[in-house]
Amino acid sequence: MSVAKLASRKLILFDLDGTLVDSASDLYRAMNMSLSVLQLPPVTEEQVRTWVGKGTSLFCYSTLQYLTGQVDPAQHQHLLETFLEIYNAEPCVDTQPFTGVVDFLEWGLSHNKQMICVTNKPEQPARMIVETLDLSKYFIDVIGGDRFEERKPHPRQLLFCVDEYEVTAAETLMIGDSSNDVEAARRAGVDCIVVSYGYNHGEDIRDCQPQQVVDDLTELLA
Asked: What 8-state DSSP symbol labels residue 98?
């Protein structure tokens, strides 16, 4: 039984990294440039893929934990600031939409669905990615993690969308890839579908008991 119930949805919310776009290679590039500034050794793209998915601060923390064995707060702050400066300047060099994403967004546009990108990534690089990949036409808004004081797994961003666009929670669907998305949707009373291919900080997404897992968003259109 599909949770999607797309005919009854007016608003569809999407996470960005790991759901709509594969951004790990750009995160990897920016992290190694940042580590070089701090005179620390590089890490691999495979490692980066297991460390991302729950926000930049935790990504930097996990990287330092691996490299130094313990995390010095001042060094963590230095890496975080350096990384954000480097990454935000060029967030979309190798980043690409995942298979099936554009087809699903096209379907949403042609069926008059209101669609919003809701990410914990800061709004400026999130918008740069959406614009660079020519995805802006699909979204009525891009809400970054710095718009409100709270971010996923807090439901604030999702509740704002429901309220702002005058829909009910039942008319809203969240599509994400991490436990943050599942938890935020649960707390907002919104149905949530997750993709199997995303980033969840190296954890199996099925461990957080999502309502439905798909390998490709076009499965929801079948």
From this structure: P
Give the domains, in start order, of the chain with CATH numbers: 6-22+95-221 (3.40.50.1000), 24-89 (1.10.150.240)
SS3 category, 68: helix
What gap in Å lies between CA 210 and CA 186, rounded to an integer?
9
Per-residue pLDDT of 18-66, as tens digits, reads 999 999 999 999 999 999 999 999 999 999 999 988 788 999 999 999 9
Active site residue 15: yes
Q: Residue 57: helix, strand or coil by DSSP?
A: helix
Q: Which of 15, 22, 181, 191 is catalytic?
A: 15
The whole model's pTM is what?
0.94
Q: Which residues pair with 195 in a beta bridge?
A: 214
Whole-number Å distance between alpha carbons of 35 and 130: 27
* CA distance linking residue 37 with residue 60, whole number of Å: 14
